[in-house]
Design goal:
CATH topology of the largest domain: TIM Barrel
Strand order of the largest sheet: 8-9-11-12-13-14-15-16
Largest sheet: 8 strands, mixed
Order of helices and strands: EEEEEEEEEHHEHEHEHEHHEHEHE
Strand content: 15-25%
Structural class: alpha/beta
Number of domains: 2
Bound molecules: iron/sulfur cluster
CATH class of the largest domain: Alpha Beta
Amino acid sequence: MKKCVLYKKEKNNLKCIACSHQCLISKGKTGICGVRGNIDGQLYLLVYGRIAAKHIDPVEKKPLYHFLPNTYTYSIGTVGCNFRCGFCQNYDIAQFKEFHKNIFGEKITSKQIVEETLKNNCKSIAYTYNEPTIFIEFVHDTAKLAKNQGLKNIMVTNGYMTKECLEYIAPYIDAMNIDLKSFNDEFYKKICRARLQPVLDTIKRAHEKGIHIEITTLIIPGENDSEKELEKIAKFIASIDKNIPWHISRFFPMYKMKDKPVTSIAKLKQAEKIGKKYLKYVYVGNV
Ligand code: SF4
């Protein structure tokens, strides 16, 4: 546990400014993510130095296809999330409050993570599995140390970070895979309990900062797979840079969306065709 950097005092509450929810947190409470808590008038990151998942993955698994290809990335995540997606693949850690009473995770320091990364011949560290924005101070401290050792840093993110959060982390982040889950604000509200615009803003801002970006969209039958919506996503990405790779990912029934069918190959091919009208690099994943 460590004091957060990204928050402000507001009357009797604390306003967290890590993600676009900007939760107002009263004494003894945590924000929506469940890992940033007001303890006696100071905001603390309760998962600082406590990781709930770690793996050594090919960087292509993040997915990043145009960044350090054929290398491994030391991947870590904590518990908690600022979204509530019914299709979450890591719901056991992301939505930990549904399944566990308390925060959990192996204690580890930034220094140990960097040492492990070097020892295992990984070229980068990926902050992934759950949303790294919610544990941004731990990302920051680890990424800074890693950069000093010649390593690269990757965030796999839903893009819901504030401008302040991006300013804070950008000097140490080399690449991001950002989910653009839909181009419909209603989808974000209903399924993720969030909004679309902050995600679009992050994509634009991260690109402006020169961070390498790749975008992922999970195609969920009946939710975000209309021709019109896929076209809007592809056009938006192209309006920033047509060289940004777009990963179209196949949905499998999961967590609270077990009643939905698997995305058909025909639909994935249609999405790929639409993407290629506007973008140079379109990849179909999860097949
Ligand atoms: S990271 Fe987001 S969800 Fe968590 S406390 Fe801060 S504003 Fe709320």
